[in-house]
Amino acid sequence: MSGLILGAEFPVIQGGMGVGISLSSLAGHVAKEGGVGIISTAQIGFREPDFYEQPLKANLRAIGKELARARELANGGMLGFNIMVATKNYKEYVKEAVRCGTDVIISGAGLPVSLPEYVREAETEMQLVERHTLLAPIVSSEKSASVICKLWDRKYKTVPDFVVIEGPLAGGHLGFSLETLHELGADTDNVPKSFQADMYEREIRNICTLVRDYAKKYQKEIPVILAGGIYDRADVLHARTLGVDGVQVATRFVTTEECDAPQSYKDAYIRAKKEDIVITKSPVGMPGRAIRNAFLEQVQREGRIAIEHCYQCLEKCDRASIPYCITKALVNAANGDLEHALLFCGSNAYRAEKMETVAEVMADLRVN
Asked: What is the pLDDT of residues 75-88, one digit of tens each?
């Protein structure tokens, strides 16, 4: 696969943001502008009438609805889903995305070791002769990239169609321990000054080398996409010097007119200062980056917020020990209840100063 199949010589992928932040509107408009629009499946059906009682059914139904709406906007552009490995019933989400005709599945928050198997099952059930869905794991280290490539090669006789490297400056769930974030200087309230870029850039180059070895073995191109901390054209140009084939951008798209988030969510980004962006412990079991607000202060002060209902979101979730219900906190954010919400963001969220359009953001990021 060449970079051109991803939409451009040096493609821009819009990162998946859940719950309800990157749905059909944002993804469809990004695809229309020549990028790859990504819908997050994380509790995607939170507005369905039966979501409270039957979240899985609501979510699976919403996958088709959101993709269809995005297709109407995309003018033939490329669309896909971000599906977290940590999701309860992960296999069903993958298969439903394939049934609905997604172009791409990007998968992280865990290692997507069985992703090819689930996609093949769905495509066999659909009686497809050839695989049509492009598959991309999200990795954060050479070790995780090696595990995925080696396992897919050995077990499925395949390799990723492209690989997303998500670095420590990304938003939401991070594939790093708190110790590693500290070592890289990516856990402070002044990340732009403290981040040890050289240390992680060596990791990026190592991943690129590893992936290209597998590309050579399979006699195909496997684009490497860099995510985390990509905000403007200067960041894109720097990413290019590291040997990657494209970028994935999420935070910059939040403050666009077309983003599916409520205006109050977007305003929180515009108001945020560097010191408001913090690392927090997520119930998923990973560190996460978010905007400090009344909700996070309550969690820090009280240690735990009572859980009233289980939305069946995570494969591994101990209701007795987690600090709060992440579904409830993220649904509150998507509904504009910011006082009781988890506001995930990337390290550059403080750079948002005004509302933009997707077309304006894409024009800034495109370097062809």
From this structure: 999 999 999 999 99
